[in-house]
Amino acid sequence: MNSSLNPPPKNLPVLAIRGTLWAYLSFIFGKVLTFASTVILARLLAPEQFGVVGYCLIALQYLEILSDFAMDGALVARRDKLEEAANAAFVINLASSLLMFGAAWVAAPYIAGFFQESAVTDLLRALVLTLPISALAIVPGALLRREMRFKLKFIPDVSRSLAKGLFSIVLAWQGFGVWSLVWGPVAGETVSALITWLLVRWRPTFKFDSQVTREMMGIGFHLILVGIMGALLANVDYLIVGKVLGAAALGFYVLAYRIPELIISNTLRVIGGVALPLVARSQTDLRSLHRVFFAYLRYIALFAFPVSVGLALTAPPFIRIFYTVKWEPAIAVMQSIAVAIGIGSMGFLPGVIYKAINRPDVLNRFSLIKLPVTIGILWYCTRWGINGVAVGQILVAALNLTLTLLLAYWVIKIHPYEVLKTALPALGSSLIMGGMIAGGMLLLNPSNVLVLAFWVASGAAVYVAALTVTSRDTVTQAITVLRATFSRS
Fold it and tell me: Are 276 and 350 in contact (CB under 8 A)?
């Protein structure tokens, strides 16, 4: 592990896109497999079964944050004494994962009581087996990210999704019901951990440094707080829907959330995974940070806005075709969630920068402001059911984006006007696309997969045409960067 593995960012857009392309290829394969398995499982299982496992997943997400102690992020941002840092991270991860496994086993009956669903006890106790299994692969995976070896990381990532999907489908087909949604993730994490260890040469040693360990734990502590607050903000809607509206409502809400999350939110996570090691190389150079920020922001906007509008338009035929009519209550929810995630995508990058410059404390303080506001809005919106909660997400996203841009201006001197100026071409072109496709769908209703695919392709063509007319420089710049990305030089 040598710092020479991290060359200086001479061509940020090309380096960023090359890393993102491999990470996104891994994401695409994994999520296509996830989508296919979800479609099959939605036909084999009932909404209530998805809802019950949804309760377990809410608890698991917080346990996962505490389990890995944010060592992956601390290791990616580490600049010296990498062997000592990796050894410390491995021991901390393993110990904290076992601790969280035990805590979950004890707390499972109380979590089941909170949601008033007794089945949660046994399901959660089985599902938390993923914690110690995944902990074994966190350090090798973080080293691959740190060295931007996303091409190699593709293999365990896709293997996880393939094993999870196949195992879940086989069990559901054999009549295991809700348990198929539990043993599938356990199988996926096991396969991914084994492959990661086979691919990565690193092995733990007894080389430790008390100062490095303290530094890693200090950064990890702040990143844990960021993760917990982020998970609270990301899943407070699940908590509120599950507690106030019940398991069936949560089942519809979870499924409606999956596609926007699958396509937009997870893409942002992929981008963040590539951006973190890249930004960490320019920790002390504000001009370089700004260049990375606006390079990424431009391409996030080019992607997130049209996808958000497209998902909102195609949600009705999509759900009826792929999930069947029994899932129709999820249609309006999916439309609102798609819009909310599209708005929120513009506030994603500052958080990555704060982590890369070792300022996660900024995110923690900011989350203390956002969390009570988010809870208040969404709780109030439950009086209109899951549709009300989804619309509340749009209000929350708009408010959080405003606060995020103001904070970014204060901390890293990024002006909100420049952010809006960078995103405006993609936003305008997306709205043009949305208007034209919405009118066309009134004439030709997408009642089957072929017609739906036609409108998706038409929407993409209209979007590119509108972007070319309204901002030819943006299209030219994107083409130039893509050519450089795929060139041999």
Answer: no
Whether 290 and 413 share a structural domain = yes
Report if residue 39 sits inside a domain: no
In terms of domains, do 244 and 150 share one? Answer: no
DSSP letter, residue 415: -
Residue range 121-140: average pLDDT?
91
Question: How is residue 342 written in tokens?
Answer: 């599209």
Closest to 224 measured CA to CA, from 387, 355, 30, 357:
355
For residue 50, give every residue at least 6 positions away whose Cβ sits within 8 Å of its Cβ, in sequence order, or none.
42, 181, 250, 251, 254, 255
Cβ contacts of 139 within 8 Å, gap of 6 or more: 71, 72, 75, 86, 89, 90, 93, 202, 204
Q: What is the pLDDT of residues 148-191, one digit of tens each?
A: 677 777 888 889 889 998 999 999 998 898 899 999 999 999 99
User: pTM score, two decimals?
Assistant: 0.67
Residue 149 CA to residue 165 CA, distance in Å, equals: 25
- For residue 5, what pLDDT band results from cuts at 50, 70 and 90? very low
Domain that holds residue 245: 233-489
